[in-house]
# Entry
Amino acid sequence: MKIIGITGTLGAGKGTIVDYLTLNHGFHHFSVRGFLTALIEKNGETVNRDSLTHTANDLREQYGPSYIAEELWKEAQISEKNCIIESIRTPGEVQALKAKGNFTLFSVDTDRQLRYERILLRGSATDHVSFEIFSANEDREMQSTDPNKQNLSACMAQANYHFLNNGSFADLYQQIDSVIRKF
# Structure
C-alpha cells in the first residue's frame, strides 16, 4: 500500500493529479477539503476559503499541527488501497506522515496568472474571487511561523517529487507516469 500526499500552490493542479491517479492508477482519494467541508456544513456555516482556512487552523490549534492529515491517514489505512491525501498544507502534516513510512509527497506549481485563469474556469465555491484576492490568499498561505497555519512553501520544499504544470494535461500526465513507474 502506497500513500501519496499532494501539496502545491492554489489552483496548480492538485485535483487534476488526484483525478488522474484515481482513474488511471486505482488510487483512493482522501480530501482535506472534503473533511473540512463536512465539518463546516455540519455546523451550518458557509463553505468558502475563509471558513475552510479558519476551521483547519482551529482544528490544528486544538489537536496539533498534523491532526487533519493524520485523521485522513487513519481512513487510508482502513481502505488498504493505494491512497492520495490531498491537500497537505503544514510542515507538521508532512513530518507526521513521513514518520509513518510508505509515504511520498508530490508538489505541484504553475505560474500564478495561469493558475488564476484555470480557477476561473474551474468555478468552485472558493474560486469566485478577483486576481488580487486570489494573490492575497496565496501569499497568506505560502509562509507562516505558526505551526498550526498553512505554510505551502515549506511543504513544497519537503516534497519527494515536484511537478510543473504550465503545459497541457498530457504534459502533466507524462510527469506523473514517470514518477509512478519508479514505485
